[in-house]
Amino acid sequence: MSTHTPRIRPHGLALIEVLVALLLLGLGSLSLLRLQGGLRLGADLSRQQAEAVRLAADDLETLRAGSAAAAPPAVLDGGASPMRLQRRIEASALQRLASVSSRIDWHDRHGQPQTLELASLRLQPQADLAAATLLARSSGGSGGTGRSSGAAPGIASPARLPPGSQDLGDGRQAWRVRPDSTRIWVFDSRSATVTQRCDRPAPPPGTPVRLDAGSLGVCRAVSGLLLSGHVRFATGTDMPGETQAEQPDSVLLPLDLRLTLSSTGHPTPAWECVHDGPDGSSTAGRAIAYHCLVQPVAAASGGLPRWSGRLDLVPLGWLLAEGSATAGQSGRFRVCRYSADRDGNGRIDAAEHPAVYSAVTLPLAGQNFLVVRGSARCPVDTGPWPWPDPLDDSTVAHQP
Q1: Are 64 and 87 in contact (CB under 8 A)?
Q2: How far apart are CA 174 and CA 24, in angstroms?
Q3: Average of pLDDT values for 98-114?
């Protein structure tokens, strides 16, 4: 009699099967981690690209409006990664058009360089109105900052930094108020507000000095709004007209500026003005550029800090008076200001150069003056002002 012993089948997994399963699980987990990292990088890059598009588009609109020129690269706040803005303006093959572009460079999460560039065309000012480019144009509004030559109606130009401002590479710009001055103003690159007032010994005459964050000298924090423009002279005739308003070409007379504030409680110094005009005698030139730093005061009802007051020219060696004028510093002159209701709202807003400023909360550019003979009337531009040159160069009496 034979006996049969049943075979017992082994239960469980062999070692090789376990290893294969672990390998597949590891590969799957690694793929999921790489996918998650890629999705996160893609999301970050998408956010950075969207921010770069916004910054480039804003700057391109400024360039297309004609209210800004090519400038050294500026560092902008791009959130997690700083972004570098570069402007380019070049002549195009099309008459009266220029090619403009705004380029944004930054580094992504892995340090790889990224670039985005937007390009467009803008109208060039006419050669016979080249002198009028000194007059900033705007669509008006109390929060406006000036007006730019050839700008489309409804486009307000942003506050402009003084020519010669140097990029500090950290979102700020530094500007020595005169080549022979010890004073340096530090601006926020985006808002054009003055954040510091520094003193550093002036360089030897004719010696260019590169400013950086470590060479500003002794600085104190300020919170200043810029008030700037040009002073031009049309003293060659007793009857200045539109041509003299658009292209004044008389010699520059020495002057100073005085801001009389009607608001109170301002920090010290409440204001200071600088200009590049002659110090003691008349001289040839196109215009005197001036810049005033005004420290606003907090509003009693809350809101943005503001200032109110009136800006006047102070003649040095010549008279402000009505009546017959003679050539030279001993003559009698009057001051006109370029001012008009350009947005048609029935009032002269801060950007349109009023006689007295009220509750100014933003930097103002293009606050221009014209000096004429004391016996002359301030010239008025009667128009028309067809697009693309909607230039109303009207002036009104300011002093005396």
Answers
A1: no
A2: 60
A3: 82
Of 15-19, 70-74, 311-315, 386-390, which has the strongest mean pLDDT?
311-315
Question: Closest Cα partner for 125 from 115, 137, 113?
Answer: 137
Residue 253 and residue 371: Cα distance in Å, rounded?
9
Pairing of strands 218-234, 369-373: parallel
Angle at 220 between CA 292 and CA 255, to 5 degrees: 25
- Does residue 235 register a pLDDT over 80? yes
158: tokens are: 């942003």
For residues 144 and 351, the answer to whether their CB atoms sit within 8 Å is yes
Helices then strands, each counted (H, E), the chain = 2, 18
Q: What tokens appear for 277 in the block?
A: 């005009």
Cβ contact 335:313 at 8 Å: yes
Kindly state the DSSP code that residue 146 receives in the 8-state scheme.
-
To which residue do tokens 């109390």 refer? 142
> Distances in Å between the alpha carbon of 288 and those of 57, 211, 278, 282?
33, 24, 8, 12
Question: What is the amino acid identity at position 282?
Answer: S
Q: What is the mean pLDDT of residues 247-259?
A: 90
> For the chain, how are helix, strand and coil distributed in percent, rounded to 5?
15, 30, 50
Q: What angle do CA 161, 340, 389 make, to 5 degrees?
A: 70
| Alpha helices (H) in the chain, listed in sequence order | 15-64, 242-246
pLDDT reported for residue 149:
36
Query: Hey, what's the torsion of the CAs at 261, 264, 268, 270, to 10 degrees?
Result: -20
Confirm if 343 and 135 have CB atoms less than 8 A apart: no
Q: Do 354 and 340 meet the contact criterion of CB atoms below 8 Å apart?
A: no
pLDDT: which is higher, 61 or 198:
198
Question: What phi and psi, each to the nearest 5 degrees, are found at residue 205?
Answer: -55, 135
Q: Taking the CA atoms of 243, 249, 254 and 257 in sequence, report the sign of the dihedral they define.
A: positive
Mean pLDDT of 49-65: 75
| Rounded Cα–Cα distance for residues 38 and 69 (Å) | 39
pTM for this prediction? 0.60
